[in-house]
Sequence to fold (230 residues):
Amino acid sequence: MTLLLIALISCSAVRGEKVKQSATASSAATKTDRQLAVIVKHRNATARCRAQFDLATPRVSALAKRTNSTAYLHHVAGKWLERRVACRKMANRRLPVIRTLKRGLDTLPYLRGLEHEFERAGWQGKMSPYFLVGASWESGMAAVPCSANRFNIWGVGACGRNWNEPKWATREIAIRSYVAFVRSTWPSARTCYQLSGYCPPCGTYGWGSRTHSQMRQLFGPVSASLAYPR
Fold:
């Protein structure tokens, strides 16, 4: 009888230990699933945000393999949350600029629908997209670009009369190239009033004044700064 009781107690203890281990494993699996769900949530939100600006979403190795390390998954989730927050901050700055550009460009048939191209080039080159459009509109080339270079909407090189400008293959390349041209030629200029020699017959101040006026006419009370809007 004593041996039977001992055996029963032993079996009960074993079953209890197994139940405890099973509960522990189930709890760990639940935590892992929860962390993976958080990672997916933040990654998807980041992907949606970055897609607005044609930006690729960073790859993540944590989702390629399942791990029971909740500490590691918590770290990965934190990284994705940082990316999500950073993208939202970027969007809060860039989306109002895109909307303002759209309102102005909708009045210019030849440039209508190019708000993303101008904004992206401005963001990447740290230059005001309002200036990029205003300089084009001031030259008159926004409506009638150079005949031999349809993407030269600023009359760079006086449409080949003063010097042969590059024959840009696409409008996006042209906009990026124009940003680089202004930055490299007038590296210390801070406003459109400081582009000395841009239009010799106009005079530096006269050209800057007309360009700023076009910027304000199209986009409202924007500054004459060459920097991307704050």
Q: What stands out?
A: The chain has a mean pLDDT of 85. The chain has six helices and no strands. Residues 20-92 form one domain.
